[in-house]
Design a protein that fits this description.
alpha/beta, three-stranded antiparallel beta sheet, 12 helices, about 20% strand
């Protein structure tokens, strides 16, 4: 049996006198995954479907504790593949979105294997039409990254886990948001997203009623490859599976339908720009996306970002950048101007403009951009801005 990796969580706050320091320990429940779960992949064309090649009972594995005894939860347990659509409809009717759920008293956090994860990936690179795994030596397969050289699949592209985090105070009865975070190069979810960049801690401290989900891309490598997220509909499939894992973390599978209906804010840092561009433009989640935040991240795919901004005018777009990503941001601003789409210079105190497109150039270190840019803990400020500005409804 494979187990979800359970993590202890203590938010860090680095403001000097601006914030009240809180210490919240994670109370994470154990989840058992069947041995066949890791690496299960849906067949082409089924990625957007809840009834994909990955059975629901494997995507939402058995709990060590009894799930809540609601009628809808029972439907989820007994419904077969043919009856799952009916089960979803009954869950929506019998258990309204997060009905009777109380605000969370303690944070829940885990690293979970995803069947729809970006990696492992054995497909094509869209820009070149060539196989992603283009090197074979001594029985090992690898990928030639433009900057990093050859990275081996078993070392760099074998981690299917994703981070799922529900902060203390999350209130299912209030309007809520799913934050999807895409990390940069030379990063892992544990050492960088959680510890060095404190993404979960900044969300916890922001006051935004939201949950956090984050996939692992290339492991600690100079590579921005999107993997399965290059494929149309793959981002929507991953979000659907994230809903299942979030519901399991809360102890009630029937709540997955509620998470499925929440709006999504996509946040990408640095090398996360490449999967973000494809997730926005072809990921299949347009109906849920209410905003995108790029942090020192426009290093390419400028036309894809411009296409999404032009098509999704009801959503907000915010990009903050240092000298490192200035050229890409300037090119995007110019492309939008040529299309007649207005942009504004972001306000450092209130940077998120509902339905607006804003850019903020700052003097900051690229490596520390997520913890000290135009202000300490910039993500906390951005999340708080979403909460106060009602940017996602």
């Amino acid at each position: 049996m494979e187990n979800v990796q359970l993590l202890a969580f203590t938010p860090r706050h680095e403001y000097d006198g601006e914030e009240t320091k809180r210490s919240t320990s994670a109370d994470v429940l154990g989840v058992n995954y069947p041995p066949s779960f890791r690496g299960r992949v849906a067949e082409p064309g089924t990625l957007c479907s809840r009834d994909s090649a990955v059975p629901l009972e494997q995507r939402v594995p058995a709990l060590r504790f009894a799930p809540a005894g609601t009628t809808a939860a029972l439907w989820w347990r007994v419904a077969g593949v043919a009856g799952r659509l009916l089960a979803t409809l009954l869950a929506a009717l019998l258990v309204p979105q997060f009905a009777a759920a109380a605000p969370l008293s303690q944070s829940l956090i885990a690293l979970v294997p995803f069947a729809t994860a970006p990696f492992p990936y054995d497909g094509i690179v869209p820009e070149t039409g060539e196989p992603f795994l283009d090197v074979v030596r001594g029985g090992r397969r690898g990928h030639t990254a433009p900057r990093g050289g050859v990275y081996w699949e078993d070392e760099t592209y074998a981690d299917s886990r994703g981070l799922v985090f529900i902060p203390a105070g999350f209130d299912p009865a209030r309007p809520a948001v799913v934050v999807a975070f895409f990390h940069g190069n030379n990063a892992t979810l544990e050492s960088d997203v959680l510890r060095r960049q404190n993404v979960a801690g900044q969300l916890q401290a922001s006051g935004l009623n939201a949950v956090l989900v984050a996939p692992q891309f290339a492991i600690d490598a100079l590579d921005s490859s999107a993997g399965r997220f290059w494929q149309p509909g793959a981002f929507a499939a991953w979000l659907a599976e994230a809903s299942d894992h979030l519901a399991v973390l809360l102890g009630n599978r029937a709540l997955a339908a509620g998470f499925d209906r929440l709006p999504v804010v996509l946040v990408a840092y640095s090398g996360g720009y490449l999967p973000a561009a494809y997730a926005l433009t072809g990921g299949g989640a347009d109906g849920r996306l209410c905003g995108a935040i790029l942090l020192d991240a426009v290093y390419g795919e400028v036309s894809l970002f411009a296409d999404w901004i032009a098509r999704k005018r009801s959503a907000f777009f915010f990009s903050a950048y240092s000298a490192s990503a200035a050229a890409g941001n300037v090119a995007l601003i110019e492309m939008l101007a040529a299309r007649g789409i207005p942009t504004t210079r972001g306000n450092a105190r209130d940077p998120i403009v509902p339905g607006g497109t804003a850019f903020l150039g700052v003097s900051a270190s690229h490596e520390d951009f997520l913890t000290r840019a135009w202000r300490p803990n910039p993500l906390q400020a951005l999340f708080a801005g979403i909460a106060t500005g009602r940017s996602c409804g």
